[in-house]
Design a protein that fits this description.
This protein has about 900 residues and is of the alpha/beta class. It has four domains: about 140 residues, no CATH class; about 350 residues, Thiamin diphosphate (ThDP)-binding fold, Pyr/PP domains (Rossmann fold); about 250 residues, Rossmann fold (3-Layer(aba) Sandwich), CATH 3.40.50.12470; about 110 residues, 3-Layer(aba) Sandwich (Rossmann fold). The protein has an eight-stranded mixed sheet. Helix 3 runs antiparallel to helix 4 and helix 22 runs parallel beside helix 23. The radius of gyration is 33 Å and the shape is globular.
Length: about 900
């Protein structure tokens, strides 16, 4: 890279301005500069670069004094560039101790300047928004901008307009906040500090994960909300972990303090069936706030588990859903804000996944403000053991997001940083990070002894004044407040808390408000009985025919590869001639029918546009231009939005995103598809903490659908099992659906039921691979038009009276058993398909057992090893008859890597169905 590249563009603005004036009117500028530009024009024809041009121009002009002045101007420009690039490394951003980074030496001597130059005036001052100024004045300005209590990292950004915009913002002299705004900032600080003190007094030793040491976050967030509303933001979506959460709920989101006190008192909840609640510092809240300017802004703080950064993906999905549904033309009206801990943002990989989503068309949300609550300790781990990078925020550089490092003792700097972050986000629609560097007054929680692991650090903390005292002293000195001001505000706030505490203790139960309740009006809670009801998912043949016409017709004016033309033509044949519709056709009909009824459909995951197994082809590419053609978008009666996106190679963050999307938009069928079923292992935290438990913990509904390709086709351990056993182990009460369909029509009705029902539950579907093209895995148009989802499919090919062995199975294994039965001619074996594993249709299974009076052998057959699949679930949940297991023995890996060995094991499992003595 050209070592003088910083002379290009913005950094030579003052040269450019003078040169333009010289070109328009040479006599209008100072004679020495006119002489320089005359030489510059001559030198421009043969010199090698900007520096050489300028030097040669001066040399040719014969003016030694001008040449020396130029060289010094150039040196000052270089000095300015170093402050902009490296100033953040020498900032006073750590309130407790000196920083331990290798910082550059910004001494003027390193740039060919001396103390004799301090009083010389330089044109270079114009490039930092100053008039022509002395070197001493320029340095003072640079120190204040780049090396005080706020440091800025931005020089890695490629977009020159962004760089110039950031420089102009910070380098333009700031008038500062007026006295009234300073009082408001102090007022929020007083609330932040007093709230923690009150809890510490009333609930000694109870966990609250206090914000003490980072109280500046409260006025910073409060001012952000006020400014965001003024800028037209209508929805704010925040995610954060436990540190400081109660303070944010009380003093930013205005959660009634009495509700928080009830949670501290450990009261039971008002009777809500299936609701267990969660600890107080995990709960979410939605509220409407009216700002001081009279604007209204809707605030959402998403509930979160102890997996600290998980909620970051969820709030991005929430934000995108709100943008798609309400603000498609102005997505900036929804503002996501993610609060991180320094150890978590550096240590948890989901952060990287989320950052990589920020500019992708399927997941972008127009920029997120990231606030890192940096207390310099992760649980008990020093930051020197918590990351290899200099800053915890270095992940921001992945997408060239600027980072502001702020000393949490300087509350005004924290507020300025937050307001700048808002301006940047609204201007560029990109992410920005604020690293608020403070400390943690107590241990990881209030019952912890931090001196076990950080005795020196906590000696410093014990002597350190809090930010309220620091700021109030500053306002006292500036005569903005008097000595009684702080005490009066503190007493008023404390009195209000005392009153709330007294009132809360008159109530027997804790009150839990539903997160985003407005979005869920009209939807009811569902127990297991309601989940097992039959819902009308029929669609008229006329509508199905209209959909089929659209999805089986390629645009005549476009060019497609021959395989695509054949595939689409085959779909036309199967619908209009053979009446044997395959899985992909059934899927397209499900989506099309929902779209015509006003529901949206959103699908994402790796390779979902065509489908991992090349079955879906929801997006078709033209051969010559790779234009994307989505046939479903051409439906004439389409009322809903169809969106399908190939995701980045992420499971954890993408599932979190889609969960957040489904949490916000119950009228959209939101689907995540795994490339192979066990790839969902990478999203296990989302499954454990959200999908399986969120309704019980937070009283929220969610209709996310997970499609997990499952089936043993001799493809090794990782391409066989979707780990059915794990999902079934998570099932309890009425928390989700788990299904394993065998026909396209049943899958069609399953997807439609997900939207038709007036409640939402997560739906886990073990989808096929080989069945996508299996000649028997087909359905007729009649099955789609008049059928409904069948939790159980009985055997219609045998006489009930002849049956001795009643075999229950699920999924693709059925077709393998069917083939073996036909081969053996065993009409005494009935094969019953359990299409829905949870809630298990026990009553239906009883009816089927009663239908076979002569059966004396009851079998659970599965392709998975004994310790996997649904066997253990069936043992725990089905006790009507003893079940004999037909499966391979227990194995540690789901399948063998040898196709020969795999086939032998598979054949053994099948043989056990027909021979009870094996």
């Amino acid at each position: 890279m050209d070592r003088y590249s910083f002379l290009n563009a913005a950094h030579t603005a003052f040269f450019a301005e003078l040169y333009d004036e010289y070109l328009q009117n040479p006599d209008s500028i100072e004679p020495s500069w006119r002489s320089f530009f005359q030489g510059f024009d001559f030198a421009n024809e043969y010199s090698d670069g900007p520096v050489e041009q300028l030097s040669n121009a001066y040399a040719d002009s014969g003016n030694t004094k001008q040449l020396e002045q130029f060289q010094k101007e150039f040196a000052v420009l270089k000095l300015i560039d170093h402050y902009r690039t490296y100033g953040h490394l020498v900032t006073k951003t750590n309130p407790l101790r000196d920083r331990n980074v290798v910082a550059p030496d910004l001494s003027i001597q390193n740039f060919g300047l001396s103390t004799a130059d301090l009083n010389i005036k330089f044109e270079a001052a114009k490039s930092v928004q100053l008039p022509v100024s002395t070197l001493a004045e320029i340095i003072k300005h640079l120190e204040q901008v780049y090396c005080h209590t706020l440091g800025i990292e931005f020089k890695y950004i490629f977009n020159e307009r962004e760089v110039q915009w950031i420089q102009n913002h910070f380098e333009t002299p700031d008038a500062g906040f007026d006295a009234n705004l300073k009082k408001e900032i102090l007022g929020k600080l007083i609330e932040a500090v007093s709230f923690e003190n009150f809890l510490n007094t009333k609930y000694v030793g109870q966990k609250r994960f206090s914000l003490e040491g980072l109280e500046a976050a409260i006025p910073a967030l409060d001012m952000l909300i006020e400014a965001a509303a003024a800028r037209g933001v209508e929805e704010l979506v925040m995610g954060m972990s436990h540190r400081g959460r109660l303070n944010v709920l009380a003093n930013v989101f205005k959660k009634p303090a009495g509700e928080i006190f009830s949670e501290f008192d450990g009261k039971d909840y008002n009777a809500v069936e299936g609701f267990d609640g969660d600890v107080k510092y995990h709960l979410g809240l939605s509220s409407m706030r009216q700002t001081k300017s009279g604007k209204e802004i809707h605030l959402n703080l998403a509930p979160n588990p102890s997996h600290l950064e998980t909620v970051g993906a969820v709030i991005e999905g929430i934000s995108r859903a709100k943008q798609d549904r309400l603000y498609a033309e102005s997505p900036s009206k929804v503002l996501p804000i993610a609060l991180h801990g320094d150890a978590a943002v550096a240590g948890q990989g989901i952060v990287y996944e989320i950052i990589q989503m920020a500019k992708l068309r399927g997941y972008k949300t127009g920029g997120t403000i990231h606030l890192v609550l940096n207390n310099q300790v992760g649980f008990t781990t020093n930051f020197t053991d918590g990351r290899s990078s200099i800053y915890s925020t270095d992940v921001a550089k992945v997408t060239h997001a600027p980072v502001l490092h702020v000393n949490a003792d300087d509350t005004e700097a924290a507020v300025r940083a937050m307001l700048f972050a808002l301006d940047y986000r609204m201007e560029f629609g990109s992410d920005i990070f604020i690293d608020l560097v403070g400390y943690r007054k107590y241990g990881h929680n209030e019952g912890d002894e931090p001196k076990f692991t950080q005795p020196l650090l906590y000696k410093l903390i014990s002597k350190h004044p809090n930010s309220r005292n620091i700021y109030s002293a500053r306002l006292l000195e500036d005569k903005i407040i008097d000595n009684d001001y702080v005490a009066a505000l503190e007493q008023k706030y404390k009195d209000a808390l005392e009153s709330s505490l007294e009132e809360s203790r008159k109530h027997e139960f804790a009150e839990i408000k539903t997160f985003m309740e407005e979005e869920w009006k009209g939807y009811e809670k569902a127990d297991e009985a309601k989940m097992l009801l039959t819902y009308d998912t029929t669609v008229s043949k006329e509508v199905l025919t209209d959909i089929a016409k659209v999805v089986t017709e390629l645009p005549g004016d476009k060019k497609f590869i021959s395989k695509i033309k054949k595939l689409i033509n085959d779909r036309k044949t199967m619908f209009f001639e053979s009446d044997k519709l395959d899985w992909a056709m059934g899927e397209m009909l499900a989506y099309g029918s929902l779209l015509t009824e006003g529901f949206g459909v959103r699908i994402s995951g790796q390779d979902v546009e065509r489908g991992t197994f090349s079955h879906r082809h929801a997006v078709i590419k033209t051969e010559d231009t790779e234009e994307s053609i989505i046939l479903l978008d051409k439906l004439k009666d389409k009322k809903g939005l169809f969106s399908i996106y190939n995701s980045l190679l992420s499971e954890y963050a993408v599932v979190g995103f889609e969960y957040g999307y489904a949490l916000t938009n119950p009228k959209t069928l939101t689907i995540w598809e795994a490339q192979f079923g066990d790839f969902s292992n990478g999203a296990q935290i989302m499954l454990d903490q959200y999908i399986s438990a969120a309704e019980a913990k937070w009283n929220t509904q969610n209709g996310l659908v997970m499609l997990l390709p499952h089936g043993y086709e001799n493809q090794g351990a990782e391409h066989s099992s979707a780990r059915m056993e794990r999902y079934l182990q998570l099932c309890a009460e009425d928390n989700m659906y788990v299904a394993d369909c065998t026909t396209p029509a049943n899958f069609f009705h399953l997807l439609r039921r997900q939207m038709i029902a007036n409640f939402r539950k997560p739906l886990i579907v073990f989808t096929p691979k080989s069945l996508l093209r299996h000649p028997l895995a087909v359905s007729s148009i009649e099955d789609f038009a008049t059928g409904h989802f069948q939790e159980i499919i009985d055997d219609q090919q045998v006489s009930a009276a002849e049956v001795k062995s009643l075999v229950f199975c699920t999924g693709k294994f059925y077709y393998d058993l069917l083939a073996e039965r036909e081969k053996l001619g065993r009409n005494d074996v009935a094969l019953v398909r359990i299409e829905q594993l949870f809630p298990l249709p026990i009553d239906g299974m009883k009816e089927i057992i009663a239908k076979y009076p002569n059966a004396d052998d009851y079998v659970w057959a599965q392709e998975e090893p004994r310790n996997m699949g649904a066997y253990s679930f069936m043992l725990m949940n089905f006790h009507e008859v003893p079940l004999r297991l037909a499966a391979t023995k227990a194995y540690s890996a789901p399948a063998s890597g040898s196709s020969t060995r795999s086939k032998k094991r598979y054949a053994y499992a099948i043989a056990k169905v027909f021979d009870k003595n094996l």
